[in-house]
Amino acid sequence: MPENDTTPAIQFQGVGKRFGDNVVLDGLDFSVAKGDRVTLIGPSGSGKTTILRLLMTLEEANDGLIYVDGDPYTHEMRGDKRVAIPEKRRSLVRRRVGMVFQQFNLFPNMTVLENIIEAPIHVLGKPKAEAIASAEALLDKVGLADKRDARTTQLSGGQQQRVAIARSLAMEPEILLLDEVTSSLDPELVADVLGVLRNIAETTDITMLIVTHEMQFAREVSNRVLMFDGGKIIEEAAPDTIFTSPTHERTKEFLRAIL
Amino acid sequence: MNDTQAWNWEHAAAVLPELLEGLQITILATVVGMVIASVLGLLVAIVRRSRLRVVTFPIGFLVEFIRSTPLLVQLVFANLLFTQFPSLAIGCVVLGVHYATYMSEVYRAGIDAVPKGQWEAAIALDLPRSRTWGAVVLPQAIRNTLPGLGNYAISMFKETPFLFAIAVVEMYTAAQQYGAETFRYMEAITMAGLLFLLVSYPTSLLVRRLENRLA
Questions:
Q1: Cα–Cα distance between A38 and A208 in angstroms, integer?
Q2: Are A144 and A65 spatial neighbours (Cβ–Cβ below 8 Å)?
Q3: CB-based contact B64:B105 (threshold 8 Å)
Q4: Distance from CA of A123 to the nearest CA of B (A)
Q5: CATH number reported for the structural domain that contains residue A151 in this entry
Q6: Least buried of A32, A211, B8, B91, by fewest C-beta within 10 Å?
Q7: Which domain of life, per UniProt (chain B) (predicted)?
Q8: How many domains does chain B have?
Q9: Nearest 5°: CA angle at B181, between B177 and B187?
Q10: Beta pairing class for A97-100 and A63-68
Q11: CA distance A175 to A245
Q12: Residue B74, domain member (yes or no)
């Protein structure tokens, strides 16, 4: 990758997503530069989570194209026809994207360490000793080195979420998707998880796409905020600007309601 | 010895060795049958999740067909059809296939009970299909199916007397034979019933304990 590479990490081109008659995204265009930390805000049902799920191929767009680091991801144009890209090629792009879920989604039949080394060994083909070594370093980073051999069900929600973060980082993603990662945590556990994420934001150059209701966190970590409503971006600005002097009426309403 | 009395302890004791020999066949048929039912049932459950109707339709039809016809008829039919195989082998396979159709439903419920988030996490980590099934979904699903497996094993154990129809000398057939030779059916059948109880009741207690531990 050249030093001043200007290819966006993520690019949406006219992306549309419908669930039955419900139009969630409608001709959405936006892009995220490498190393950007972008927070998506907006009322529920505005399409923010759908964007993350499209990027993880958990949903499939009905129209438009998605590029990751310039590579077509799920569909590409052949002539003027939009065709699906086969799973094998999607998988190579997907490997560069990681996701942390609201419900953690750790594998309960595995220990903490096994959760983290599963994909590095079986997807990236890392030798086991190497996978374990980097898993231990990651556990140290999220402050759970002593939980290495614990069952995930023995951990608190905050601890589980920190393991989930370590698990996604073990794949060395270029892009990290954070889907309301603190929304199902007890209030006193939120700070630990946000601390870990703040640390990752400061010490890595991973591109982050964040859906959250923690506005203080969004303000500290992200350098851009996109306000969504009805499947469209209605306002976009630096966090200091959007939180202190939003221009769009809907943004003002939304921020008033949640702050 | 008065042969007209309703219950004769000497006969009850005399029939035991033959019954115990039959019990071995009963247990063998149950174990082999359950192994077949467990493996085949799992395969059926996985294949039926396919989106290809050319695959799911014939399998679905076959499953319904087997479930809608009596085990006894299937045993006799298979025994007539495959005369080149020993009856015991046919009995084990028919029991196994019959119960596989029930086991597949147990597996299906177990697989459906694995939360959607588990599949999504596997996609997010780009795990291959085989790893998603083998390392994530099935270990959780099978845990859910263990009590069902135990219950069907007991149920199959109690249905092995149908093997009488294809002349496999399991415990019930042994009792019948003793009765035919001595005309002491009461002792033979009673003792066979007691032996069935002696095996299935403790097993069912074990299954219940397993159920409670997994719950």
A1: 6
A2: no
A3: no
A4: 6
A5: 3.40.50.300
A6: B8
A7: Bacteria
A8: 1
A9: 70
A10: unpaired
A11: 29
A12: yes
